[in-house]
Write a structure and sequence with these properties.
single chain, alpha/beta, nine-stranded mixed β-sheet, about 25% strand, binds NADPH dihydro-nicotinamide-adenine-dinucleotide phosphate
Length: about 425
């Protein structure tokens, strides 16, 4: 079918690469390009000979537009898969526009330097106007809509699990289960244990920024913001058990609020153990989560980047992690004039993921939908010029692919609701 350029070679990209190589009919050729080429070469060496997919590797700095364009022009991919960091989203979108290629990613744009005065001024205005203070939001990438439309290209934003699969669940519920969705609760439960007192399951910098920020939810047409971790609930998750979960701001709330007609409330909850929260609070209190550089023995260091260097690399958690994840959406609303509820979710086993692709379930649950999103564009199943999130496309082929490629979902028609 075609060629994909995969940018980044970390925890999630490892899964994407394995899954593309399992799906060689669609991904006949891939190029893995990242900052550290040796990581790309190592995975190529592991997979060469086990798959018909032809693999090439390259070094690229995805913050450098000219370097990206030179690589895209030379390789001529059908799609660029951005599996690097959200910091690179805009540069890679610019490169796709300049070179005439479709784009996809797994997380929306946020800047690396949140002290940049130009960015800060726009951010502060947005916080006031919109009413939430997360560093990431869709405005930067939605601003590319017209450019992608004019170029006849598609940009698919946020095709991981959450964002990503959770929005496919919403589109599926809207299409098949409800006439009117009133409320959506997205529940992200990781029942896995890696045995470390403290580690993050994906990029520590991005993860800790997200978790230490104020929470917010959408209610009756506007944002309600709360102090970080101040709304806590307990939930009994299928195949995982009882867990404490906390309300967080999350990017898909922003697009779902636009795309699910007349939805009254959307909330996002994530589970955390007490040890994780105590470590995070302590690190925050001593300034280790700061993104502002400090002078240390003649060097400038960014505290959160130094912390990242100390923490276990998420890509190494695979062999140590036991237990399951359970991620899904609980819906309330109406069908044929009657009140209705539904819970669509997936359960994923860390050890089974490791056996299959050598990664834990957080990377797996992100990497599989990234491959599927790219497949939707490459096979023309999802094909409209512009910039879109997952719920804006027909959910059926995506939902079918989730069952086929390792993330089967189920529906509970009578779930316990979150108060
Ligand atoms: P990692 O930190 O493990 O990997 C990031 C990769 O990007 C590394 O290989 C890194 O290179 C590379 N990279 C970083 N900067 C550049 C650059 N300037 N040029 C080229 N390559 C670069 O992150 P994860 O794999 O954990 O996460 C990947 C993405 O997935 C993130 O955007 C994250 O937010 C998103 N994500 C989405 C989820 C979802 O459900 N939607 C869930 C989890 C993650 P190097 O190896 O040299 O450092």
């Amino acid at each position: 079918m075609g060629k994909a350029l995969i940018i980044g070679c970390g925890g999630v990209a490892g899964v994407v690469i394995h899954k593309c190589c399992q799906n060689s009919d669609v991904f006949e050729e891939i190029m893995i390009a990242s900052r550290t080429k040796s990581k790309c070469d190592a995975i190529k060496e592991k997979l060469d000979g086990t798959t018909p997919t032809k693999i090439r590797t390259a070094k690229v700095d995805a913050d450098n537009l000219d370097e990206l364009c030179a690589l895209i022009d030379e390789y001529k991919p059908d799609i660029v898969m951005n599996i690097a960091l959200p910091y690179q989203d805009l540069t890679i979108m610019d490169a796709c526009l300049r070179c005439g290629v479709n784009y996809m990613d797994t997380a929306n744009y946020e800047p690396e330097d949140t002290d940049d005065p130009e960015w800060r001024a726009i951010y502060e205005k947005r916080c006031k106007e919109e009413g939430f203070t997360a560093y990431f939001d869709y405005s930067w990438q939605w601003a590319y809509k017209e450019k992608f439309e004019k170029a006849g290209l598609t940009a698919l934003l946020g095709s991981g699990f959450d964002p990503g699969v959770t929005q496919a669940y919403c589109a599926y519920a809207q299409k098949h289960l409800f006439d009117q969705i009133d409320t959506i609760d997205i529940l992200d439960c990781n029942g896995g244990d890696h045995g470390y007192p403290f580690a993050t399951n994906f990029n520590p910098e991005i993860n800790l920024r997200e978790v230490s920020a104020p929470g917010s939810y959408w209610e009756n047409g506007h944002w309600v913001e709360i102090p970080a971790m101040s709304i806590k609930r307990e939930y009994d998750f299928d195949q995982v058990g009882h867990k404490d979960m906390y309300l967080l701001h999350h990017e898909e709330i922003e697009s779902l609020a636009r795309n699910i007609p007349d939805v009254k409330r959307i909330r996002f909850f994530m589970t955390f153990g007490q040890s994780y929260l105590t470590h995070m609070k302590c690190l925050e209190n001593v300034g280790m989560l700061s993104t502002t550089p400090i002078e240390f023995e003649g060097h400038q260091i960014v505290p959160i980047q130094f912390l990242k260097a100390l923490l276990p690399d998420p890509a190494t958690l695979g062999p140590r992690t036991k237990g399951k994840t359970n991620i899904g959406c609980i819906f309330t609303g109406k069908k044929d004039g009657k009140e209705k509820t539904a819970y669509i979710y997936n359960v994923c086993d860390h050890e089974a993921c490791y056996r299959e692709v050598g990664s834990q379930a957080i990377s797996y649950t992100t990497g599989v939908p990234a491959m599927i999103g790219a497949m939707m564009l490459m096979t023309g199943k999802w094909n409209k010029p512009g910039v879109y999130t997952v719920e804006e496309f027909d959910p059926d082929p995506y939902m079918e692919a989730l069952n086929k490629w390792g993330l089967p979902w189920q529906i509970n028609d009578n779930p316990v609701l979150v108060d």
